[in-house]
Design a protein that fits this description.
Two copies of one chain form a homodimer.
Chain A (H helix, E strand, L loop, with lengths): L9 H12 L7 E10 L4 E11 L2 E6 L14 E4 L4 E4 L1 E6 L8 H8 L4 E6 L2 H19 L5 E4 L20 H8 L6 E5 L2 H5 L3 H12 L3 E4 L8 H8 L2 E4 L5 H9 L3 E5 L7 H9 L8 E4 L5 H6 L3 H10 L4 H7 L2 H6 L17 E4 L7 E6 L2 E5 L2 E2 L29 E2 L11 E10 L6 E11 L2 E2 L7 E7 L8 E7 L6 E4 L8 E5 L2 H14 L2 E6 L2 E7 L11 H18 L6 H5 L10 E4 L2 E4 L4 E3 L8
Parallel strand pairs in A: 1-4, 1-5, 6-7, 7-8, 9-10, 10-11, 11-12, 12-13, 19-23
Antiparallel strand pairs in A: 1-2, 2-3, 5-14, 14-15, 15-16, 16-17, 18-21, 19-20, 20-21, 22-23, 22-25, 24-25, 24-26, 26-27, 28-29, 29-30
């Protein structure tokens, strides 16, 4: 039973509910004639009335009973005329920062789509600003009705020793945060090799979370569906959103782990994963639907959890089962089902009204008994949050970037500079819609002691610059899969959020980098000396203080630019942003160099001694 | 996550599990070639291996994988040759005292039937001996592997002001006990009228339980499936075992309450309730199977939770769904699914081995990774518990009982003594297999200023004597439905456990009462001056310190006696014991008189002014 994320703890208001249910006291609000989706029994209950008081459900009138006895002169009565009512949608794993806005603006975007609670892993903000930044973000989140439940980042840095971040989180930090009311679990445990190796940091963080009776969320990317996965689960990680094959997802369910089927803006796993349950008749109570990362324009144009539901139904998942996967199943996963996840007496009155079980076209959203969004618009609009000065100035590159900065010396491990000709180099190959990358060994030209890009073969230069402590650290590599002419830069680059630049020529790359340094971070697309699109994200270099709609428009201009520059990927900036994410196979580039993310060691740019 | 009811908290042993799963360290025990019942996915996984360490599951080998890599020279290996393995069975609502033994002897009886955990409401012992008695019982329970999870009695007395008990429990007691590791919830909240009336005691107890994050168990007997039930649920009561119709059970599920389908020795509700789920296709995750009260001979001859499973399957419930109802569903109901309820990595190694999904013929039981029962026999046999002196001397009647004690004055409310002839009286009518009674108004003879029994119409005298504080309080009434000649007495009588005597003649009734006073309590059947059967229960007057098999044999002699005396009820002593249970409709007799259990007021024996 929670004593937060609700208007009042149940024990402080159950007297009122008891009286309202019996008609001894009027309800504050009654919803009439709903098709109530019962997620506890997997049914639709026709002609249901729902009486609310103290932010909770006091009574539901079903099977011919009405809530007439709960209506007094001051009771707000809504006639739903047969619309569906379901429990408020919950996203069991989301990084708000991917939407490039702070939590209050995020809430304005998602609540109209029926989202009433999120399990938010703020590890992006924490990589830049640590616990101090998280405290500010939580303060902002408390100004809106969306229930922003926090699972603090467990892997900050994502892969210690392989990258430089703005902050680092230790076991003591986790112990402290597990005592916070806003914290419902531990953020995704991406250090799966550390867990399997019984490293002190990840196991210590898991220990503090379990001791606090909270949920350890996972991120297991090894592809293994046997020993390694089971060892990972046995450590105490009880849910995971990183399945990419149906077999992985199915095994997680069999191993008692909540399998969070993901469908983000860029990572499209739901269709494949849906086969895990549609190909057989199994219990789906351990399945959640989550979005992980949503670009702002996805939220604005496609929606949030409602979008997941539509996709699930399109994949052949029964619509009520799909609704369970974003309500009661999530609540059970996080141990909060006694307070939310179903529209039943005593639970928080977090409700979504929609007119079709297939399209989930949300008409209205109630949180804690209040109508908070209607007809696609949030009914709340807080003042801009007064972010502390330091959160708005996070670009500290410590290096004067010019076109020359982007020359890549053709130097082998022993210091030899290669003669003009060709060199075999490691290239990170990305594919749209996937978080995984491939390591390819390809030939690039060597000219004047430098390795060159090969735009004609889509082999671009990639650079990562440390931007938190002005160390000047930076490293170079090659990237394939983006197919552009020009340069792209961003500071969203996961998870260290250093300055990442990709391009086919040094001049555009320098302009892109300089542009972001000047504006405090964000995303930019440059070609032939022109800025084709830009999103300014001055808040920690990853978020904008402006409304999500405006940010989405800017992002659209950047994506248009990508398209004009030749890229055909969906959400390409998001896929580009993973070039530096050193916790997912196979090859990544951090400010310290290339990381082999299967063996966790640095590997050189030039491939030597390969037969 | 529990830090008790397991060998070690997960965070103290996950390093070992991680290593065992990966084959870096040998398992303590491996079960080979099982048909593993996956209650998380509702499947049977063929040819499964299960590796155990530190009392938990480290690894399961499925889909062609074996646990060979977990086997070292000292690993105990059991070849199950295709037998089924399911998670240990849990009984989500049970009164150990009904088995007439203490918890360690109870464990010896039920663990061989696959029971690994019970949610034990010890309100019977607490009505006699209060918190002090409970502490002793818990000490006894800790000497056996069975996980005796306590839900302390919430209604002691069951109906305050209507009966005299040995002890009374208040909100302060509940607050204290909610801090105990052994306590997982609040015992059945039988004061449903008090809850609906917002009385301080029941709501205060619920508040303390919710604040502790524990589960409030229910007992709602009003038959209502609308306002009253919803008000009761909105108070915070999250499970209830008192459904008698399929409609009640179904509505509880729809209202988000765990419906605990009961099948006790005397209360046979499962067949009727099973229709709630077999007549439609609904999610059954909120269904539990519970036994509530089991006579010792039921445990010895028919089993415990395995018996519920067989009955469920006989009622048309799918066998894997039935297994979920005694494993994962119970664990989720009590918020302990992160530690038990499934055979998955990291969970306690509480396992049951059986050879058929229909007969659930338990071959072996493991608790915390140890083989604790095999071939129907417990592998543990603790020394008799050294019960404190005061728990063995609880008969304090404060009255010298003779045949004259059983004369019932034919006196009306205003003191008028009726002349010889007839009188209309209230009679409690019981039916075998039901906890409910009916109030009937029947005519009995008046002779010499006294009301007489009418054995020829099965109208027997009933007396309840206060036995805790030697007050001499007693009251008289009439009982129908037992059909015996002679007298029956017992101190098990719920829930005050006063001395209850029923009979058709005063001499046998006196002998029965005197016999129990002399032996410290128990059950006795007397006819024509002869003791036909007796069970001595000197421990609080409700339990025996001897093994359950011996008690079961004695109970069998008493039941034989009942049968010879003319009674055809199943478990008749148990049904008789509810004559005094003033928290269930319609009419009951306590030491203070007749209680109308629908309106909660005392009603007179003689019906006056009835047209």
């Amino acid at each position: 039973m929670l004593n937060h994320f609700c208007k009042k703890p149940l024990w402080e208001c159950h007297r009122t509910l008891i009286e309202v249910a019996q008609g001894k006291r009027p309800a504050e609000c009654v919803l009439r004639d709903a098709k109530l989706v019962s997620v506890t029994t997997h049914e639709v209950l026709e002609h249901a009335d729902i009486a609310l008081a103290e932010g909770r459900v006091a009574y539901i009138g079903i099977c011919g009973h009405t809530a007439d006895h709960c209506i007094g002169p001051d009771t707000l009565v809504y006639d739903l005329k047969g619309a569906y009512v379901a429990p408020g949608f919950m996203d069991g794993h989301i990084h708000v920062e991917s939407a490039m806005v702070g939590p209050s603006q995020y809430a304005r975007a998602v609540v109209p789509h029926g989202t009433t609670a999120i399990m938010w892993d703020p590890h992006e903000a924490m990589n830049v600003g640590g616990v101090a930044a998280l405290k500010e973000l939580i303060k902002d989140s408390k100004r809106v009705p969306l229930k922003c439940m926090v699972t603090p980042g467990s892997c900050v840095p994502a892969v210690p020793g392989f990258e430089d971040t703005g902050a680092a989180i230790g076991v003591d930090d986790i112990r402290e945060m597990m005592g916070w009311d806003e914290v419902v679990g531990l953020g995704e445990m991406m250090n799966d090799p550390g867990v399997l190796g019984c490293a002190d940091l990840p196991l210590g963080e898991i220990e503090e979370t379990l001791k606090a009776g909270k949920t350890v969320t996972g991120h297991f990317t090894m592809g293994d569906t046997d020993c390694a996965l089971e060892a990972y689960i046995a450590s105490g990680v009880s849910c995971c959103h990183e399945s990419v094959t149906r077999e992985e997802a199915l095994q997680k369910l069999r191993f008692g782990q909540y399998a969070q089927f993901r469908e983000g803006s860029a990572w499209h796993n739901l269709e494949e994963l849906s086969h895990a349950i549609t190909e057989r008749t199994i219990d789906t109570r351990f399945v959640n639907l989550v979005s992980d990362d949503n670009h702002p324009e996805t939220l604005v144009s496609e929606g949030h959890v409602d979008r997941l539901l539509r996709k699930a139904v399109a994949c052949g998942i029964d619509p009520i089962s799909a609704l369970q996967m974003v309500t009661i199943n999530v609540a059970q996963c996080f141990g909060i089902a006694s307070d939310m996840g179903s529209v039943t007496p005593g639970k928080c009155a977090d409700l979504v009204v929609f007119t079709s079980l297939g399209s989930f076209d949300v008409q209205a959203t109630f949180i804690d008994g209040e109508l908070v969004a209607e007809d696609g618009r949030a009914l709340f609009d807080p003042e801009p949050y007064a972010w502390p000065e330091e959160l708005g100035h996070s670009m500290h590159v410590g290096l004067s970037i010019t076109p020359e900065t982007f020359r890549i010396p053709a130097r082998t491990q022993d210091g030899t500079v290669l003669p003009d000709g060709e060199a075999l180099v490691r290239v990170i190959t990305s594919a749209g819609g996937s978080t995984l990358t491939k390591e390819e060994h390809l030939t690039v030209p060597v000219e004047g002691g430098c390795l060159l890009a090969m735009p004609e073969k889509d082999i671009l230069k990639a650079f990562v610059f440390e931007r938190h402590h002005a160390t000047g650290n930076h490293a170079a590599g090659f990237a394939k899969g983006f197919g552009i002419h020009g340069a792209l830069a961003q500071t969203v680059a996961h998870d260290a959020h250093n300055l990442l630049v990709v391009g086919d020529n040094d001049a555009d790359m320098a302009l892109a980098a300089q542009t972001l340094i000047a504006c405090g971070g964000g995303e930019v697309a440059v070609a032939d000396g022109q800025i084709l699109g830009k999103v300014e994200l001055p808040l920690l270099g990853i978020m904008s203080p402006r409304p999500v709609e405006e940010v989405a428009e800017e992002v659209a201009t950047v994506e248009d630019a990508w398209s004009k520059m030749g890229c055909t990927m969906p959400s390409p900036f998001m896929t580009m942003g993973l070039l530096s994410l050193a916790c997912i196979p196979e090859l990544r580039l951090t400010d310290r160099g290339y990381v082999d993310c299967c063996t966790y060691r640095f590997v050189p740019l030039i491939v030597e001694n390969e037969v």
